Amino acid sequence: MRDVWLIFVRSIRPTLSNPVVLIFGLIQPLLWLVLFGPLLNSAGSWQWFVPGLIIQLGLFGTAYAGFALIPEIRSGALERLRVTPVSRVALLLGRVLRDVVVLVVQCALLVALSTIFGFHASVADVVLALVYAAVLGLSIGSVSYTLALKLKQEYAFAPVLSSTVMPLMLLSGVLLPMNQGPEWLYTISRINPLSHVADAVRAVVNGDFTADSVWIGGVVLVVLAVLCLLWGTRTFRRANA
């Protein structure tokens, strides 16, 4: 835990010294909020749309985190950390923890700004939704750093992300209800774990804790986090052996 904290502090210092990073991370979901949200003019549309933006921010906010590791690999900074007594697993978890903290702050700001447009939820509901977002960020961030460690080059890392992140977002139903599309598309979307997480966050934000989607999304999210962390920690141990 001490090593995780050391790597976390090392990773978050540039963000604290330049808070603009937080603001730019909010630009995309804010654009969706301002330019796309008003098109959903049905009653309660903001209660449906804002949780989807939380999932979108959790996906995009951490999926590209691995880009920050590639320069460290190229410059030899990561190699210098490898020869220190610091835990090899901490090299992953410390970085992911930084991304999760930034993600939670961005999601909280997004929810606060959403109230201007008519979104409303209790503090307890929002906190629980942020927990879902944090665990999602933990999963996606672990995969991002693991892929960066394996691929080691931006030209290889970028197409892998572009070919996976966008389909995951579109098939998660964060922008439009998937049950209003063709049956085959809805069936494919249910294979996407993010669709179950999105359903859970929507139910939580609206205080519907008895919905099946709450525990289904929670189970899917825990399993996803365990698998991603196992893959990530195993890769970092072997790469740094």
UniProtKB/TrEMBL annotation:
Keywords tagged on the record: Antibiotic resistance, Cell membrane, Membrane, Transmembrane, Transmembrane helix, Transport
Compartments where located: Cell membrane; Membrane
Membrane topology: Multi-pass membrane protein
Chief subcellular location: membrane
InterPro entries noted in UniProt: ABC2_TM, ABC2_TM_bact-type, ABC_2_transport, Nod_factor_ABC_transporter
Cell membrane is among the record's keywords: yes
Listed transmembrane segments: 20-40, 46-70, 100-120, 126-148, 155-176, 214-232
Domain of life: Bacteria
Coiled coil, from the record: none
Residues in ABC transmembrane type-2 domain copies: 10-239
Stated family: Belongs to the ABC-2 integral membrane protein family.
Protein name: Transport permease protein
Source species taxonomy: Bacteria, Bacillati, Actinomycetota, Actinomycetes, Pseudonocardiales
